[in-house]
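Hi R.,

As promised, here are both runs. First protein below:
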Amino acid sequence: MVYDRAQLQDFSFARDPGYLLIQWLAEYLGWGIIGVNVICALIFSTGLAVFCRSLPRPLLALAVSIPYLVVVVAMGYTRQGVALGIAMVALVALGRNKNLWFVFWMILGVTMHKTAVLLLPLAALTATTNRIWTLFWIAIISIGAYYIFLIEMIEVLYKNYVEFASQSSGAAIRIAMSLIPGAIFLLFYKRFKIQKREKYLWLIFSLGSIALAFLLISFSAASTAIDRLALYLLPLQLVVFSYLPDIFGKKYTTIMLFLIVSYCSLIMFVWLNFASHAYLWVPYKNFIFL
């Protein structure tokens, strides 16, 4: 969604009302698109910080987030980046068995980008107690969110992301970036010393990365839609690589840290030098230095 003053007069729950509110605030303060980007960056950065602090190695998780989650998603897909930042706060709440807070943050995320509604069922899927009751009220809320935020736009979304969207050239690489940590989590599932509900959560994310890989192979024409869904799996990378140095014992900690940081550096190098849209980042045009 581009910055458009006309949109501020056409409020609708189907038009990402949270993002429209940010636009309205920036317009009211006279900040324009720069204000919109600053507010969105603050929201995303806060969500990322909260998520990283919940992990055993926050700085390592932050380093893992830089090459793609921060540089590409947060700086390139503004609305979905904000939704993902809020979703990370929601995932922390879910891991701490705070279902109501999870739902609150996810509904807020949906107001930024409607695709975030897909994460709402996680509260029911990861429940370890009162599963029937949790499934019931989460289903009611999910259906309500669908009718409020999605139903008016579902046909438009289908046309934009499936019928008319060009294929996403980097979809396979981006899905592979989640598939690798997903495979690691599945292979060493028992070695991850995390709470039962969190294990269920990241197990679902790991299986989701495999499912999206099969979808991409089977429905390559819808690669843009699959690529956008895959963005919500990115927190899996932070979790797996944050725990990875410790699951093989202290003897290999330094080696694992070196390999993980090298892997992230390689991703950043390849993207900046070979990605089709890298020219928009290099040289980066920051308004402060214009």
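And here is the second one, sequence first, then its structure tokens:
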Amino acid sequence: MSKYYITTPIYYPNAEPHLGHIYTTVVSDILARYHRLAGDDTFFLTGTDEHGTKMVKTAAENRLEPIALADRFAGVFRDLWQELKISNDDFIRTTEPRHKAAVQEIVRRLHANGDLYLGAYEGWYDEGQEEFVTETDAKAHNFKSAITDKPLVRYREATWYFRLSKYVPRLLQHIEANPHFIRPEGRRNEVISKLKAGVEDLSVSRATLKWGIPLPNDPEHVLYVWIDALSNYITALGYGTADDTRLQRYWPVDAHFIGKDILWFHTVYWPAMLFSLGLQPPCCVVAHGWFKSEGRKMGKSLGNFIDLVKIRGTVSKYGLDALRYFLAQAAVFGDDPDWSETNFTKSYNELVNVLGNLLNRTLKMINNYRGGVIPAPAASDAVDAPVLEKIAALPGALARAYENYALHQCAALPIELARAANGYIDATAPFKLAKDPAQAARLDTILNICAQAVYAALLALQPILIERAVLGLKQLGVDPAGKTLGRLLGQSLPAGTKVGQGQPLYPRM
């Protein structure tokens, strides 16, 4: 049995989650669920990043202590993931004692290895991204954040540095030797180009900030966000503790699933720290695009921000599966998806008119013509071949799509099979064959093929349609509980299986 460890970034709990957080987490959940169904020993981590300037400022604006703000919104994140049926195995907060103690041990080891030194910094700082910005980049963006467009802040203070530049040659060698370390490929090329342009050592502490984890070697300084935040991926596994069985079992991580804005930190800062600690780098860092809304950049000031109220309203109207399916297929993975009513309606109608329609038609025919029992097939005809070929090809194509993080294909492949099967019903006209006793064997074949097609499509959609795929399978007389996807997809639906009367998977809107 293989293992699979996947993480989301840990989110700032300074406001309610929005579409960006939900997109990252739902897609990570789809990947985790697929690997569990595939039989892999899977561990799925998410959590909250609770230190840093951004938390202090938001807390002050709300007349709260930072921990009170963190407690409030960390609870909102945790509760929302339960509400959306996210299957994470752990939820880590950077204010937890287990994380703080492990991070201090990480700092001790970095210091002992000679990779931390005391210096001074003066320059531009992007508070929203918790990132220092070079003079060149600051000028290029008119001294505003390239991400948030908010003004940069000028900082001057003593700081501890991590010897990032020491590890750049090794990091470049690793990226170039491992083409799948950064996905998609375009993001990989961005990182290589920036590394070759030159990288300075990394400031990792603040003497003027008190909300954070104190450095064990210099308690007047607290850690700057990136060592603190990035380390969650190993502190949650017990790094630096007496019990690191989780670390031994799951590291290196198979996929850090992130937004493209934090790619540099995960593909440069983090692997360099891991090199210093003597740990393997991540197997893969997967960077997705940013959601637009109705074709424009999403923002509160533009009136097109997709907030939690909007998400909950959508789920209430269309169901959780509809949201998950839309997010999975919203764009070629890595591109910027677009949230629009038109796109969502089109996506939902695929579930109604393609998948749900195929199931209803198949069950109705089997009940009307064969007493609710799936017949054994007779000899196949040329018209049967395209659907049979799609059924046979689905397991391999689906596995490749998940392996390549092509989430749009993971959603599209089963739906395209269902679409082909609907066309097959139209072409073969079983309702006409049913009137001719001489065509009984031919009708048996067609009904069996339709049942196999909708069965395979529903099986393949289980990681995405976490409620209705199982409901559909049970209407076909199959309970998938406790069975791996490979076992189920590798077997045909047995002739003689008793099917249900059929209930619509999705209501028409």
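A quick note on the second one: The CA atoms of residues 24 and 71 lie 22 Å apart. Let me know what you think.

Best,
J.
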